[in-house]
């Protein structure tokens, strides 16, 4: 079938490593470190002090502006508030909780009264208070996205593509809880009042598609659109183009194309927030790759270390080469496995030395392949050159900030040029230049 968006690549999926693993709850760790920065925007400030007793679901950090709160993932005692390594890089203050293994819920954890009567404003307040932020990786506060889409969303899209190789977290969730994901989607639809509601899913998840189809019998106004598998179809702009044929303009947002896109895990979290009163303290994480012994799909409490998540999947294999937060195309390599799972971490992918495709001697042979595959129609080879030269004017002129760091160009590059690394440096330079 023809691709429904420009560019893209078709990397080996390797989803079979974990695709059959059922969704299972991971045993709770003795200590959890909850980072105060888990979403795009202002980080939270702690609402608790060392020595305080906390209950599961209690709000322990909050802030103003573009910010959603963080909650205690277990009951126990606050042991420390200190800088801890963060999976997206660098360090960040985190609230360390010693687990009492009682899971005593906070009194605030209770289902909304009359959930079907809630107004859009009331629903948005619940999503905010539950700390929802996009769980597909972007971690943009869900309440803000929902509010800005009010009155301007023609098409509401549930992003069930999960196009990154290796990752099967949304797949496992959709197979296990399709009805709850759709209930969450229905809540988002009540806020946005769209004309059309679509579940966008790639055609490499037949079992999840079957489950969703069955569950959709209760939602006759929602369509399931199976899309030909192609990376990066799960990126917002590409998914919008694949589903509606519309293009989001350069520098624009989905609302500029009359669309709003929410990840399947975010919809599930919305369902739990409203119908159980449960804030976002747990998420599905795929632990997989040739570098881990028993790939799994685990329901993991936020704040659990990668080390413990990997141990729950049988530990690292002997020839592990690299551990990533996220998939091989967009993931971030981790040097320290004490980093905690955050709301945005959908996978811990452990690659073995056989997957090492890096080169000690990268060289551009000017083949133009990177131009052909860029889904944003950028010019990666020139962007890379100007990023290395620190030419900020050229980077602006060539729209570096539109780059979604999908990694298609680097994947296609026969010269093994570390293009995305260069773009990240260039973006940092642009940010600092703007200051
Ligand atoms: S794909 Fe690689 S080698 Fe080819 S033009 Fe782009 S950067 Fe150069
Ligand atoms: S330039 Fe950016 S958006 Fe284009 S393929 Fe490369 S990483 Fe993806």
Provide an overview of this structure.
- The protein has 435 residues and is of the alpha/beta class.
- Among the domains are: 161 residues, NADH-ubiquinone oxidoreductase 51kDa subunit (Rossmann fold, 3-Layer(aba) Sandwich); 66 residues, no CATH class.
- 29% of the residues lie in helices and 20% in strands.
- The chain is built from 14 helices and 17 strands.
- The chain has a six-stranded mixed beta sheet. Strands 2-8-7-4 form a four-stranded antiparallel beta sheet, with no helix packed on it.
- A hairpin with a 7-residue loop joins β5 and β6.
- The protein starts with 15 loop residues before the first helix and ends with a helix.
- Bound molecules: iron/sulfur cluster (SF4) (2 copies).
- The site of one iron/sulfur cluster has 14 residues, from α13 and α14.
Q: Regions with pLDDT < 50 over 5+ consecutive residues?
A: none
Neighbour order of strands in the largest sheet: 1-14-13-17-15-16
**Bound ions, cofactors and other small molecules, one mention each:** iron/sulfur cluster
Relative helix content: 25-40%
Number of strands: 17
The end-to-end span amounts to 46 Å
In percent terms, what proportion of residues is strand? 15-25%
The CATH H-level superfamily of the domain at 115-275 is: NADH-ubiquinone oxidoreductase 51kDa subunit
CATH architecture grouping of the domain at 115-275:
3-Layer(aba) Sandwich
Whole-number average pLDDT?
96
Kindly provide the radius of gyration, computed on alpha-carbon positions and rounded to a whole number of angstroms: 21 Å
| Helix/strand/pairing category | alpha/beta
Q: What is the CATH top level name of the domain at 115-275? A: Alpha Beta
Using the alpha-carbon principal axes, give the shape.
Answer: globular
Please give the largest β-sheet: 6 strands, mixed
Q: Helix count, per DSSP? A: 14
CATH topology of the domain at 115-275: Rossmann fold
User: Assembly state here?
Assistant: single chain
């Amino acid at each position: 079938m023809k691709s429904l968006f420009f560019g893209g690549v078709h990397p080996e999926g390797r989803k079979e490593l974990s695709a059959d693993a059922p969704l299972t709850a991971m045993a709770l760790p003795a200590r959890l470190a909850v980072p105060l920065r888990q979403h795009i925007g202002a980080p939270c400030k702690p609402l608790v002090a060392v020595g305080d007793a906390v209950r599961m679901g209690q709000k322990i950090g909050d802030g103003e502006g573009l910010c959603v709160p963080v909650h205690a993932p277990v009951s126990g005692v606050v042991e420390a508030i200190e800088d801890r390594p963060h999976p997206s890089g660098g360090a960040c203050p985190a609230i360390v909780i010693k687990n009492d293994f009682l899971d005593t819920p906070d009194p605030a954890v209770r289902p909304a009264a009359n959930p079907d009567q809630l107004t859009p404003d009331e629903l948005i307040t619940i999503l905010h208070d539950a700390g929802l932020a996009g769980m597909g990786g972007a971690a943009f506060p869900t309440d803000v996205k929902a509010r800005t889409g009010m009155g301007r969303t023609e098409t509401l899209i549930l992003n069930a593509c999960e196009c990154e190789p290796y990752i099967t977290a949304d797949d496992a969730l959709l197979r296990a809880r399709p009805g709850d994901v759709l209930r969450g989607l229905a809540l988002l639809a009540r806020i946005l009042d769209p004309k059309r509601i679509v579940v966008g899913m790639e055609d490499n998840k037949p079992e999840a598609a079957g489950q969703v189809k069955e569950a959709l019998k209760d939602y006759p106004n929602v369509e399931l659109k199976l899309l030909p598998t192609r990376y990066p179809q799960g990126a917002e702009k590409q998914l919008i183009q694949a589903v509606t044929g519309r293009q989001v303009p350069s520098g624009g947002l989905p609302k500029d194309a009359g669309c709003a896109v929410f990840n399947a895990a975010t919809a599930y979290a919305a369902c739990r927030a409203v119908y159980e009163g449960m804030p976002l303290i747990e998420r599905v994480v795929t632990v997989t790759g040739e570098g881990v012994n028993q790939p799994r799909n685990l329901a993991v409490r936020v704040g659990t270390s990668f080390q413990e998540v990997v141990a729950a999947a049988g530990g690292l294999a002997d020839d592990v080469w690299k551990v990533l937060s996220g998939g091989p195309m967009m993931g971030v390599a981790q040097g320290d496995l004490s980093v905690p799972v955050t709301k945005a971490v959908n996978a811990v992918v452990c690659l073995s030395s056989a997957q090492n495709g890096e080169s000690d001697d990268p060289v551009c042979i000017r083949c133009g392949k990177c131009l052909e595959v860029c889904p944003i129609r950028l010019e990666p080879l020139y962007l890379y050159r100007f990023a290395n030269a620190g030419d900020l004017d050229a980077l602006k002129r060539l729209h570096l900030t539109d780059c979604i760091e999908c990694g298609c160009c680097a994947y296609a590059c026969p010269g093994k040029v570390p293009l995305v690394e260069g773009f990240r440096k260039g973006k940092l330079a642009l940010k600092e230049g703007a200051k």
